[in-house]
Specification:
The complex is a heterodimer of chains A (about 290) and B (about 400).
Chain A (H helix, E strand, L loop, with lengths): L1 H32 L6 H19 L7 H15 L9 H23 L15 E4 L2 E4 H23 L1 H11 L1 H6 L4 H23 L11 H14 L4 H21 L4 H15 L14
Antiparallel strand pairs in A: 1-2
Helix pairs in contact in A: 1-5, 1-8, 1-9, 1-10, 2-3, 2-4, 2-8, 3-8, 5-6, 9-10, 9-11, 10-11
Chain B lengths: L1 H23 L13 E6 L7 H17 L3 E2 L2 E8 L4 H13 L5 E4 L3 H14 L3 E3 L16 E3 L4 H15 L2 E7 L2 H17 L2 E8 L7 H10 L3 E5 L2 H13 L8 E4 L3 H7 L7 E4 L10 H14 L5 H20 L4 H10 L1 E2 L6 E3 L6 E2 L3 E5 L10 E6 L4 H7 L3 H4 L7
Parallel strand pairs in B: 1-3, 1-4, 4-5, 5-6, 7-8, 7-9, 9-10, 10-11
Antiparallel strand pairs in B: 2-3, 11-15, 12-13, 13-14, 15-16
Helix pairs in contact in B: 2-11, 3-4, 5-6, 8-9, 11-12
Classes of the chains: A mainly alpha (about 290), B alpha/beta (about 400).
């Protein structure tokens, strides 16, 4: 019994980390731009498709360029569309980003076709590893490693670099940051791009596990929103803890109560919302009160 | 928090607005149908996870129209294609086809839930409807309708073809099925057949639809050590499962058997992850395909530079049956079309097939296929093992008797 539990938890962690990556991007975009980006999942799918295209053209090593490319596309979208939503009624940004999600999905279908694209783990990551009772595939270990490195890097960037400080300050008091002579619009463009690039990293990592199809984001975005709600909107720490909790709870529910698998993360969200309506690490944000 | 609450509420309002807008629709104006073009409706998915399937179905129907020179009764055919995103909108689209486009009949409906919703409109509007998918038993069973016909074999019929094969592989069966009507239908009918084929159940997982990660289920299956898995996952869920089944090194360890799959499920995941034994309505590389079917394959290849999937065949045969029945009826009157669809019979191949007049189910053998050991062609993934039945009498028996089906067909 123990061996299967250990394996279930480990696989749950992998799933959880993918959710964390999606949720962190969502959270950062909301924290700094005040926009709940419904199109976040579309950038996740775009990440998978760009990775597939790069793989077809140049092989495995080119895949790492997918997230920066999607980040660039995100910045373009920010400059042309998202920028106009700042400070406007929140409802407007919901509608516009929702429409954007549909548009990107339609564009993917137009460019790459409605069929899915075969995409498997690279040959050097095929196979299983067993550490004692733990059974996990090499590819999932790689996913785990990549996500942890990405999240640590992001955390270090936000905590220790001057850019990170500007971002954190800008999320709390944009007027003051501008008064200090910082070009905030340009910072916001970069932030939106960063959020999209994070979604794309998740998309690239998920591509060999999930079917690469235009609507692949649908299954990933809902859990990401749940993760953000549990962790607390705008909280980096919260997203990590909540994402891992959702992953583990889901996989253990499948082991013991499969009929409740889909409901388990919502039950978790419900319980946390009752105890802490702001989410686990949600703070009081003057801007949004 | 107050702000957030407002967001949530306004979000609800927005979604409701979007739904209402898509429901109203900005259709074309109605035109009479006595001597102008003959308008025929199609309801196939245009977006979301079903978009690829919808495209193949639509291409099949379109080809059937092209093959008759886009004319029926000497009048030009006009096709109107609307979306099948979910039961509500499919039903509304069916209503639009009746009210706004004034179509003479509708071909379409891939999902049982949408099909059942569309059937209610077909009944009310007395509009002939040929379903090209939708395997749930009740469609031609207790909910059967005079105006609805169906090309796809029901779940119990397909399971009857598959289970004897499953028991040849091994006696310990693990079920992994989608947890909604279709998956439950599979579970019910295969459990009923377990004893008959001498197999036992060692585990069952009913998986919520739109599940993306199957690793936890696969770990459970590994632990249960079954001889064979009987699956009932559909579309993207099925593709996700196959990919992770391969990723977790299970591909050649435990065989997987299922029904109601389509070629695109496998084309989407590629040769590396494809495996299993399946019951399908049709396969393009089956030596037993008829001359007309070979013509379909040839025309399709010419137009799209790839072979047709079984969904293309379904869309094609549904439209073909309709066009031939309109010609035979010499009229676009709905009652005349229904009467002639009931008499329609295809005698191209060894086993003739037709819509049974007392439940409107197409009675036709399906094929049992196995994924090739070595897939070398981009499209050709299967070896055809055999048909689910070989003679007309055997086929009729497999589709069940009037008492088993339980359809009380109302008068026209």
């Amino acid at each position: 019994m123990l061996d299967i539990l250990v394996s279930q938890v480990a696989n749950g962690l992998v799933l959880g980390f993918i959710y964390v990556l999606i949720a962190v991007g969502l959270s950062i975009t909301f924290g700094l731009l005040g926009v709940i980006n419904f199109a976040h999942g579309a950038f996740f799918a775009l990440g998978a498709y760009v990775a597939w295209q790069l793989f077809q053209l140049f092989g495995w090593s080119a895949v790492i360029f997918a997230p920066p490319l999607v980040g660039l596309i995100g910045m373009l979208v920010e400059v042309t569309i998202i920028r106009r939503l700042y400070g406007k009624e929140p409802l407007l940004s919901l509608i516009v980003t929702f429409a954007l999600a549909l548009l990107i999905e339609a564009l993917i279908r137009y460019i790459w076709g409605a069929d899915g694209k075969p995409f498997n783990p690279p040959p050097f990551l095929a196979g299983i590893v067993e550490f004692g009772p733990l059974l996990i595939t090499k590819y999932r270990v790689a996913v785990l490693g990549t996500t942890i490195v990405t999240l640590l890097g992001l955390w270090a960037f936000l905590a220790w670099t001057p850019y990170g400080r500007i971002l954190r300050a800008g999320s709390r008091d944009p007027e003051m940051v501008e008064l200090l002579g910082i070009n905030l619009p340009r910072v916001l463009t970069a932030v939106f791009g960063l959020g999209c690039a994070l979604a794309a990293i998740a998309g690239v990592l998920a591509a060999p596990l999930w079917t690469v199809s235009p609507s692949m984001a649908a299954n990933a975005v809902m859990p990401a929103f749940v993760v953000v709600a549990i962790g607390g909107l705008g909280s980096f720490r919260g997203a990590v803890v909540a994402g891992l909790a959702v992953g583990i709870v889901t996989s253990l529910t499948i082991q013991f109560m499969p009929e409740a698998a889909a409901a388990s993360m919502y039950a978790l969200m419900f319980a946390i919302m009752l105890l802490r309506p702001r989410g686990l690490f949600g703070e009081r944000w003057e801007r949004f009160e | 928090m107050a702000k957030l609450d407002m967001n949530r509420r306004s979000f609800m309002r927005t979604t409701a607005g979007v739904a209402a807008a898509s429901a109203i629709g900005w259709g074309r104006t109605a035109r009479a149908q006595s001597d102008g073009p003959v308008r025929i409706g199609m309801i196939y998915s245009k977006q979301g996870p079903g978009a690829a399937i919808g495209e193949y179905l639509q291409r099949g129907s379109e080809l059937a129209v092209e093959q008759v020179g886009r004319k029926v009764l000497g009048r030009p055919i006009e096709l109107v294609w609307l979306d099948e995103p979910n039961p509500q909108v499919s039903q509304q689209n069916m209503q639009r086809l009746a009210d706004e486009s004034k179509v003479v009949a509708v071909v379409g409906g891939n999902y049982s839930s949408s099909a059942l919703a569309m059937m209610s409109v077909a009944n009310r509007e007395k509009l002939p409807l040929i379903l090209t998918g939708a395997a749930a038993s009740e469609i031609t069973g207790k909910n059967c309708s005079r105006y609805t016909f169906r090309t796809q074999a029901t779940v119990p019929v397909q399971m009857k073809g598959l289970m004897p094969y499953v028991s040849q592989i091994g006696k310990k069966v693990y079920f992994i099925t989608a947890s909604y009507a279709f998956g439950q239908d599979i579970l019910r009918s295969s459990r009923a057949l377990l004893k008959e084929v001498g197999a036992t159940e060692v585990g069952v997982d009913e998986v919520p639809i739109n599940t993306s990660d199957y690793s936890s289920y696969i770990l459970k299956i590994r632990q249960a050590k079954p001889d064979v898995i009987v699956g009932g996952l559909v579309g993207g869920d099925f593709s996700n499962f196959l990919k992770q089944w391969n990723e977790m090194g299970m591909k050649n360890k435990i065989p997987y058997a299922a029904i109601a799959v389509t070629d695109t499920d496998f084309w989407d995941v590629g040769p590396q992850a494809s495996t299993g034994i399946y019951v399908k309505p049709w396969y393009y590389n089956n030596p037993k395909n008829t001359a007309a079917e070979k013509k379909l394959i040839e025309d399709f290849r010419k137009k799209y530079n790839e072979p047709p999937s079984d969904k293309t065949w379904s869309g094609w045969i549904g439209m073909r049956a309709l066009l031939e029945s309109i010609e035979a009826a010499k009229s676009t009157d709905s009652k005349a079309i229904v009467t002639h669809l009931e008499k329609w019979k295809n005698t191209d191949g060894e086993v003739p097939f037709f819509f049974r007049d007392w439940d409107h189910q197409m009675v036709r053998p399906a094929v049992i296929v196995k994924v090739k050991e070595n897939i070398t062609d981009k499209w050709d993934y299967f070896d055809v093992l055999k048909n689910t039945s070989e003679t007309e009498a055997e086929t009729a028996k497999a589709f069940g008797s009037k008492e088993e089906i339980g359809c009380n067909m109302p008068a026209l």
